[in-house]
């Protein structure tokens, strides 16, 4: 008997499957339409600025914009000896054409960052060439005009900075630089300051975070154990600093901590000290103000975690014969680690980027990385250096957060498994 073909699916069943697929596609499109505004918002307000910041840290447009023909002529140069006549002629033409332009001034300033005297060399050569254009060979004319054009180090510097991207700013932010041969070496003694600044920033942020942990834990524990009415009243006191500007709070601490302020007057009236303590324009004042400002960011995550911990656990441990302090340390404290970790990382990240408090309450030795970012942005208009410092700070925070999250995550998981 011949095999009979399987019966064809009814038209109604095929149509139902198509309708289901169409409904799934429409559902996905609706979900995508709901998520799209948030995704675009995050891209343009978060990812795009970070990408622009990282690009600015390595962007090097000045030389190749002001000296395009020279950049092209030096593209195949081996950087040994002196370039050929074509490179000298290209430089001569670029200097004559760019004389008096903002692009040439920016290129001269950029080269002067790596070697003092390059700005005067570029600007004077452009002025002399524009006043009396030479008729003979460009190489001989430029060397006769200034002997530095006959040095290979000068041309190596120009060729190195003619690239569209550079590591100069990142190396400077790490107290490194490139020597005349292009090798990475340490900055000369007395010129490297940024590693100390980064170390100071991380250390001060760690101290502030530790102080907030020590002070915030008992406050959050008290708020979690008190009746709701009393706890809500005290929570208003915790949130009260949020209603006042940071600048106003820093100014108030200057008044309170100065030599004739309330703190020194009270200590002298009690006979604790004979002379006023110096509590402002040093690290002590910075620590006090930053801890006061950031303490609520530690208390709130701790309180939210502690509020969800039932007191039954402690009573059960004590009833089984465990001493009160050991019960607290072995039973209660491990359950508060997520709140402690969240508050700690929040306070640390906020304090690592502080600018106003160290600038107003601290001295020169208390300035953090943010001070130098503001200095290069507002004073010297060196966007590359400001972006490099910001990028390195971002990388440091990301690395520390990854390590911290891994360690705290493992600790939290182990505590929960117990």
TrEMBL record:
Q: Name one GO biological process term.
A: transmembrane transport
Q: Which UniProt keywords apply?
A: Cell membrane, Membrane, Transmembrane, Transmembrane helix, Transport
Residues of the ABC transmembrane type-1 domain: 198-404
| Bilayer disposition of the protein | Multi-pass membrane protein
Keyword presence, Membrane: yes
* Residues spanning the membrane: 31-51, 202-224, 233-256, 284-305, 340-361, 381-404
The entry's localization annotation reads: Cell membrane
Would I find Iron among this entry's keywords? Answer: no
Highest taxon of source: Bacteria
Pfam family of the protein (one): BPD_transp_1
Spell out the SUPFAM superfamilies in the cross-references. MetI-like
Q: Which GO terms describe its cellular component?
A: plasma membrane
Q: Which portions of this protein are annotated as coiled-coil regions?
A: none
User: InterPro entries, per this entry?
Assistant: MetI-like (IPR000515), MetI-like_sf (IPR035906)
Family recorded in the similarity comment:
Belongs to the binding-protein-dependent transport system permease family. CysTW subfamily.
**Name of the protein this chain belongs to:** Polyamine ABC transporter substrate-binding protein
Specify the species. Answer: Aquabacterium olei
């Amino acid at each position: 008997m011949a095999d009979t073909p399987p019966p064809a699916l009814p038209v109604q069943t095929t149509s139902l499957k198509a309708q289901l697929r169409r409904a799934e596609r429409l559902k996905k499109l609706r979900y995508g339409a709901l998520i799209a505004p948030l995704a675009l918002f995050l891209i343009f307000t978060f990812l795009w600025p970070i990408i622009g910041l990282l690009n600015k840290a390595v962007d090097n447009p000045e030389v190749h914009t002001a000296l395009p023909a020279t950049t092209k002529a030096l593209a195949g140069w081996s950087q040994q000896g002196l370039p050929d006549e074509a490179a000298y002629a290209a430089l001569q033409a670029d200097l004559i054409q760019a004389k008096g332009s903002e692009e040439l001034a920016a290129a001269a300033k950029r080269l002067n960052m790596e070697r003092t005297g390059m700005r005067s060399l570029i600007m004077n050569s452009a002025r002399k060439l524009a006043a009396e254009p030479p008729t003979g060979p460009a190489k001989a004319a430029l060397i006769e005009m200034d002997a530095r054009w006959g040095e290979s180090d000068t041309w190596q510097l120009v060729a190195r900075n003619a690239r569209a991207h550079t590591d100069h700013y990142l190396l400077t932010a790490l107290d490194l630089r490139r020597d005349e041969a292009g090798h990475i070496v340490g900055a000369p003694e007395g010129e490297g300051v940024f590693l100390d600044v980064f170390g100071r920033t991380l250390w001060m942020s760690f101290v502030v975070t530790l102080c907030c942990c020590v002070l915030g834990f008992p406050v959050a524990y008290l708020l979690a154990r008190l009746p709701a009415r009393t706890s809500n009243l005290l929570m208003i006191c915790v949130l009260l600093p949020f209603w006042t500007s940071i600048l106003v709070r820093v100014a108030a601490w200057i008044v309170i901590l100065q030599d004739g302020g309330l703190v020194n007057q009270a200590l002298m009236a009690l006979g604790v000290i004979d002379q006023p303590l110096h509590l402002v324009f040093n690290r002590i004042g910075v620590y006090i103000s930053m801890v006061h400002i950031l303490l609520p960011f530690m208390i709130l995550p701790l309180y939210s975690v502690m509020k969800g911990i039932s007191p039954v656990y402690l009573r059960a441990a004590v009833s089984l014969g465990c001493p009160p302090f050991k019960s607290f340390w072995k039973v209660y404290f491990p359950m508060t680690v997520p709140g402690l970790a969240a508050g700690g990382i929040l306070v640390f990240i906020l304090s690592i980027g502080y600018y106003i408090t160290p600038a107003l309450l601290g001295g020169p030795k208390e300035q953090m990385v943010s001070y130098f970012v503001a200095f290069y942005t507002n004073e010297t208009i060196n966007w590359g250096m400001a972006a490099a410092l910001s990028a390195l700070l971002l990388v440091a925070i990301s690395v520390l957060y990854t390590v911290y999250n891994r360690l705290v995550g493992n600790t939290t998981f182990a505590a929960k498994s117990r």
